[in-house]
Design brief:
Blueprint: H1 2-14, H2 20-50, E1 53-55, E2 60-62, E3 67-72, E4 81-86, E5 98-100, E6 114-118, E7 126-133, E8 140-150, E9 160-162, E10 166-167, E11 172-175, E12 185-191, E13 196-198, E14 203-206, E15 214-224, E16 230-240, E17 252-256, H3 258-261, H4 267-278, E18 282-286, E19 289-290, E20 295-296, H5 297-305, E21 308-309, E22 319-322, E23 326-333, E24 346-355, E25 358-366, H6 374-378, H7 385-395, H8 397-405
Parallel strand pairs: 2-8, 9-16, 10-16, 17-18
Antiparallel strand pairs: 1-3, 3-6, 4-5, 4-7, 7-8, 11-14, 12-15, 13-14, 15-16, 18-22, 19-20, 21-22, 23-24, 24-25
Helix pairs in contact: 1-2
Length: 422
């Protein structure tokens, strides 16, 4: 009946040429027909919204698991999205994990059905309602799905890692606590040479014997103190005979800590992870001092890693941390027009890679002025090759580096040639 009326009304409209009385008589009929159409259209929209369904293949997931959410019956807006809400809280703005229906945080795709995957879901254990929300708003479509996040086992940052080498007859110590992202945990050694002890707090210590020369491999276990869940990792320590130390590879890294790791969520943990994942041996840092809480971040990083740090730079934006001992922190370049806010132009340290035979390196780190600076000049509106080169020349960065490597190095001038310099 609906389609017949619509066809008839269109025929009648076409036939209403030049007859006012006929048109007047038909207007109520047309209005009623349009009303029917509008009400049917509204009913169809309501049915579509009410038919939104979301589902998952199980009801409980461990922290860190991927969670795939299937959906169907959506309205197809580019900004329809799916979000986790704590079951105890109402729908509204706040922190929480979410994705658009295209599986990203950039709207688009107009998907009415499909699936999206939330990777490595690391939210706190508890119950959550997963909801389908319409067009960047907080109007929930369909019924939520309840999911439970359970505590997972402790997580090592990497499953295999190395520590600084040991020497026969020389006391060895270090820490492994930073290699695990959880804090309420205990450590133990499951397997490996007997000379090394692993304490519950993650301290390692011992003294290798002549029979331990070579590559030593240890299996370590970390256990969650509350749940007893555990995870294993492999650690290696190379042991040398006295007078036979050799460091064949050295990885040096520069790391801008971006506001002393304070301008991002969980910044300090992310900084630790970055260092561990890099497998670097020596790291020169910039933006190292937190001015608000007066914390020199390289000192804390070195303490957690069981490393060494440049103690002469504790009021500076620059820093050096090293898995090898720092034996001299006096290699600094004096103040000048290139200084970054406070401190000296560059801080340098002599680092002892091996004692017998002796092998040292000298590493200097600097944070040069940010204005003028060629890369910044390049992204400004109207930038040209000439304007970028002019800004770079004005920055005097070449001169600053020459100064660091030249005759101004306090305590050793010019920079020593008997040790490699970085």
């Amino acid at each position: 009946m609906y389609s017949n009326r619509w066809s008839k009304s269109r025929m009648l409209v076409r036939g209403m040429q030049g007859n006012r009385l006929q048109r007047a008589c038909l207007l109520p009929y047309i209005a009623a027909t349009v009303g029917i159409i509008a009400s049917v259209s509204d009913a169809l929209t309501s049915v579509a919204v009410g038919s939104v369904k979301i589902s998952m293949h199980k009801e409980a997931y461990e922290q860190g698991e991927d969670i795939t959410v299937k959906f169907s019956g959506g309205p197809g807006n580019a900004a329809d999205w799916i979000r986790f809400f704590p079951a105890s809280k109402s729908i509204g703005p706040g922190n929480g994990i979410w994705l658009y229906t295209n599986g990203t945080k950039a709207k688009g795709g107009n998907a009415r059905s499909g699936s999206i995957t939330f990777a490595n879901v690391a939210i706190a254990p508890g119950e959550y309602d997963i909801r389908f929300l319409e067009n960047n708003g907080y109007k929930a479509l369909g019924e939520p799905v309840r999911v439970t996040i359970t505590p997972g086992p402790p997580k090592w940052v990497v499953s295999e890692f190395r520590r600084r080498h040991g020497v026969v007859g020389t006391a060895y110590s270090g820490k492994i606590v930073a290699y695990v992202t959880d804090r309420n945990v205990t450590f133990r050694k499951r397997a490996g040479p007997v000379w090394l002890t692993v304490l519950p707090d993650g301290t390692i210590k011992g003294e290798p014997k002549p029979s331990d020369v070579g590559r030593n491999t240890f299996t370590l276990r970390v256990t969650d103190s509350a749940t007893s869940l555990h995870a294993d990792a492999t650690m290696t320590i190379e042991v040398f005979a006295q007078g036979k130390e050799s460091v064949r590879h050295l990885k040096v890294m520069s790391f801008n800590l971006l506001g002393a790791l304070s301008v991002m969520d969980n910044g300090y943990r992310k900084g630790l992870n970055a260092i561990i994942l890099s497998d670097a041996d020596i790291i020169g840092t910039q933006e190292s001092f937190h001015r608000t809480i007066k914390v020199y971040v390289p000192e804390k990083l070195a303490s957690d890693l069981g490393w060494y740090y440049n103690k002469a730079a504790t009021n500076s934006t620059q820093g050096i941390i090293s898995r090898y001992p720092i034996v001299d922190s006096g290699y600094d370049v004096g103040e000048g027009p290139h200084d970054w806010r406070v401190g000296r132009l560059a801080h340098g340290s002599k680092i002892r890679l091996a004692s017998k035979p002796s092998k040292d390196v000298i590493v200097a780190t600097c944070h040069l002025v940010s204005e003028p600076y060629g890369p910044y000049a390049a992204y400004r509106s109207g930038a040209t090759a000439a304007s970028v080169l002019a800004a770079e020349k004005k920055s005097d960065r070449d001169e600053a580096i020459a100064k660091i490597m030249g005759k101004k190095m306090r305590g050793c001038s010019p920079m020593p040639t008997e040790s490699p310099s970085f």
